[in-house]
Amino acid sequence: MSGSSRTWTWVALAIFSVGIAWAHSASWQRGPRAFVPTQAAPGGMGRIVALDQNFVVAQVARNARTLLREPTALYDAPYCFPAEKTFALGEPMLVLGLLAIPTYALTEDPILAYNAALVLGSGLAALAMFLLVRDWTASPVAGIVAGLLYVFPPVGLADVVHPYVMDTSGTVLALWFGGRWLAHGRWRDALGMALGCSLQMAASFYPFVAGFLLGIPVGIALLVVHRKTPPPGQLASVAVLVSLAGYAVFGPYIALRGRGTLATGVEQLFLASDAWLETLNPGIWAGCLVLLALVLPRRRMAAAQASILRWGLLIGGAVLTALVVAGEGDRTPGALFAAVSGLIPGLDSVRLPWKISIGVHLVLSALAGIGCAGLARLGGDRHRIAISSALIGVTVLSLAWVAAGNRAVRFEPFRLRPAPQVLNFYGELARLGNRGPIFEVPPRLEKIRFFWPGTARQILLSAYHGRRTQACHASHPHPARLQLEEIYERLPAREAVGALARMGFTTLVVHRGGASDESLAAALDTAVEGGWLAPVHAIGSKAAYAIRLP
Q1: pLDDT surpassing 90 at residue 489
Q2: How far apart are CA 371 and CA 355, in angstroms?
Q3: More confident residue, 423 or 353
Q4: In a domain, 229, yes or no
Q5: Residues 317/221, Cβ–Cβ less than 8 Å
Q6: Are 379 and 305 in contact (CB under 8 A)?
Q7: CA 211, CA 200: separation in Å to the nearest integer?
Q8: Residue 455 and residue 54: Cα distance in Å, rounded?
Q9: Cβ neighbours of residue 466 closer than 8 Å, sequence gap 6 or more
């Protein structure tokens, strides 16, 4: 790397760091061990958003802890007990888990590790887009502009509650390394491309499908640009490594799908064309840069390869758009989705196929970078510094304007950390030697059965105490949902507690509250006197009982 390239890389990192620090400043100022960034949600969606954040933080922290200490147990997530391989009931979130490892290793704090992973992931994504567009256009300024548009609102960080769904950075890395691999035929670039593909699979199924479909036309464009194929030995190695990574990530999903645990034919949500435009609107400034990239003649492009690559991006974006736009009504797939849903395993099992359109944002960011490079070249070399500063400044101001006027893309601090007395309760259970899976009994409200998404708070607690729980807030239903609900209705009767014991539960945790407290207390006293439950610890509204039945 030349001195000039290194300097521009540091400049880019400084700009990205300032922007990311600003975006996350509110939650970090309130306390990164207790607060996470969130977004305003319309109507009653606020509760669902809060429950989702409990689950996401728990999953990321759990992945970090497991990858650090017991990677062979990765698929045995603590939630949805007694089901097996419950990791595959939801999104993998492995990339966030990897990024959370350093902080978790030092602090063992789930929320702090999650916040650190968010910040680090945003920085790496911006840097990846910078490197890609700089290579394509030979313009560092274009790389900075593309990186800013890729990571920051209105779309880049627009879903901080589900950051893994927005994460196409693995595809960006694969494209960057892939271009260098074709140009130089080096092993390090071949392995880098395999790494990018593997990271994309490990993030989420939605951006993986987007990256896969986008990678085909852009990959063909790269082959046209470089006019050569990679060495056969390297190509075979990349194919083997990516296949192994795919098996490691998707193997458990395929197994559960084969057993019928992952539902097929679920009700899926698509987007009407006007809703799609609203969801992925890049803003006026970015839109102008994209338009410029498409209309500039080849001789005005900053680099000859950019003229070819822009059409690969455009074709890929058109394919992704056609895939997610609805037919008649938002529940009816369009023609392209209906045609390919049987070709991509699992595509018929996802609830929100329209999220695949996040790949279009990658396309728009890269095209905006190409347009920016062309605009900078129109100004010539004489005023390069002034023009470069102006392009970056306008980009920053446009993003700040959007964030200031749109509450939906502004991050607000949301307190997620459980109360100290709750953490102390589970800590005391561990100190007393109480171990094993927990069945948690919510307050007994008449005619109210389990609201399974509502158990997300108990899943977050599992990120602190590390024990398995029946709580389940996954994309697919708890495999033993009906059986556990029937047992819950009969607790703490002897036969119900015995059923829990046969499933492997060792502890019953009761969260008291509601109209039935008096009858519940009497029933628990009967169970204790009968010897099938033994009190372990109680504090406030919480009480733990060891299950004594074999």
Answers
A1: no
A2: 26
A3: 423
A4: yes
A5: no
A6: no
A7: 8
A8: 9
A9: 65, 78
H or E stretch covering 389:
helix 384-405
Residue corresponding to tokens 């009967």? 526
DSSP secondary structure of 269-281: --B-HHHHHHHT-
Closest by Cα among 58, 133, 125 to 374: 133
Based on the fold, state whether residues 520 and 457 are members of the same structural domain: yes
Calculate the CA 454 to chain-centre distance: 20
312 pLDDT exceeds 90?
Answer: yes
User: Does residue 245 lie in a domain region?
Assistant: yes
Domain boundary, last residue among 369, 397, 413: 413
| pLDDT category of residue 453 using cuts at 50, 70 and 90 | low
In angstroms, the CA 538 to CA 482 distance is 29
Summary mean pLDDT of the chain: 86
> CA 465 to CA 102: how far, in whole Å?
20
* Calpha distance 13→438 (Å, rounded): 45
* Domains: count for the chain: 2
Q: Quick one: which of 244, 225, 238, 245 has its CA closest to 190?
A: 238
- Tell me the DSSP string of 186-242: -HHHHHHHHHHHHHHHHH-HHHHHHHHHHHHHHHHHHHHHH-----HHHHHHHHHHH
The dihedral formed by the CA atoms of 169, 174, 180 and 184, expressed in degrees to the nearest 10: 160
| Contacts of 156 by beta carbon, 8 Å cutoff, 6+ apart | 125, 149, 150, 166, 361, 365
**Residue 19 resides in a domain:** no
Q: What is the 3-state secondary structure (H, E, C) of 100-144?
A: HHHHHHHHCCHHHHHHHHHHHHHHHHHHHHHHHHHHHHCCHHHHH
Which token pair is 230?
A: 């990679």
In whole angstroms, give the CA distance from residue 197 to residue 191: 10
Decide: 77 and 87 in contact? Cβ < 8 Å: yes
pLDDT of residue 265: 58
Q: With the C-alpha atoms ordered 119, 453, 76, 511, is the resulting torsion angle positive or negative?
A: positive
Burial classification of residue 331, based on how many CB atoms lie within 10 Å of its CB (0-12 exposed, 13-18 middle, 19 or more buried): exposed
474 is in which domain, residue-wise?
420-547
- What order of strands is seen across the sheet that includes strand 533-539? 438-441, 507-511, 542-547, 533-539
Same domain, 450 and 396: no
The residue ranking higher by pLDDT, 332 or 359, is 359
Reading the block at residue 197, the tokens are 């593909």
296 secondary structure, DSSP code: S
Q: What is the reported pLDDT for 450? A: 58
Rounded to the nearest 10 degrees, what angle do helices 94-107 and 187-203 cross at? 90
CB 211 within 8 A of CB 170: yes
